[in-house]
Amino acid sequence: MCVTAHPDDEAGGFGGCLRKYGDLGVQTCVICLTPGQAATHRGVAKSDQQLADIRRKEFAISCEMLKVSEGMVLDYPDGQLYRQDLYRVVCDLTHHVRRFCPNVMLTFGPEGGLTGHPDHSMASVFASLAFHWAGRDNRYPDQLAEGLKSHRTQKLYYATADFAIPGRQPITMPPATTVIDIREQLETKIAAFKTHTSQSPLWPMFEQNIRGRGDVERFHLAASVKYGAMPSETDLFEGVQAD
Questions:
Q1: What is the dihedral of CA 89, 156, 183, 174, to 10 degrees?
Q2: Cα separation of 80 and 100, whole Å?
Q3: Domains parsed from the chain with CATH numbers
């Protein structure tokens, strides 16, 4: 399960891994918290609602290209995640974790990824709490009464990188513990990002950065059910026990 903030995050931050593991038959799920209606780039949209509708469709096309088993865009307000009730949002995500029962979760780090976007930071906070709380039967017990079961996801990863975008505010990224080879998925990742046509002004910068450094995706193992020293990995599912 991958938790993001905006349509296009799934491709830009996680597209290589989503397609790589999709090709291997792994069931994948992307939860996007907002429809991206406050974006600077608006394509042909004349209103926030129209932009949200456009971006939902772009997200669906991208997920299909990345072989995402289940993709959904929630209705939290773009650019305002820091104003949302934390307990409510985590409740929402915990429900999806307990329903989908992932072995591995991916999201941004609390720094907000390469852009430092506050929505990315809040997606990290919400997803991290859902990762931990979904496995405890004293968190949102009403969900358990409705038929769901507590679910303990085995690993939580934050996306990271070994570079910064020039001209931006300083970002302190978590160290990479896991490096995934996505050379065979690189062109699909770029193509999936370009399905977000409303965001076409971002394409040149994205492609330049990805083609220069994009043969791998880097992650920081933030939490694991296995105790011990921090590993160096080349597979998100290393050490994961099948259900």
A1: 90
A2: 26
A3: 2-224 (3.40.50.10320)
Mean pLDDT confidence for 181-188:
97
Would you list the DSSP string of the chain? -EEESSTTHHHHHHHHHHHHHHHTT---EEEES---TT-S--TT-SSHHHHHHHHHHHHHHHHHHTT-SEEEE--PPTT-GGGS-HHHHHHHHHHHHHHH--SEEEE--TT-TTTT-HHHHHHHHHHHHHHHHTT-TTSSHHHHHTT------SEEEEEE-S---TTSPP--PPPP-EEEE-GGGHHHHHHHHTT-GGGGGGHHHHHHHHHHHTTEEEEEEEEESS-SSPP-BS-TTTTPPP-
Neighbouring residues of 106: CB distance < 8 A, sequence distance ≥ 6: 1, 2, 3, 14, 17, 157, 159, 219, 236
The percent of residues in the chain predicted with pLDDT above 70, rounded, is 100
Judged on CB neighbours under 10 Å (0-12, 13-18, 19+), 43 is middle
How many Å apart are CA 15 and CA 168, to the nearest integer? 23
Task: Express each pLDDT in 128-168 by its tens digit.
Answer: 999 999 999 999 999 999 999 999 999 999 999 998 888 88
> How many Å apart are CA 112 and CA 95, to the nearest integer?
24
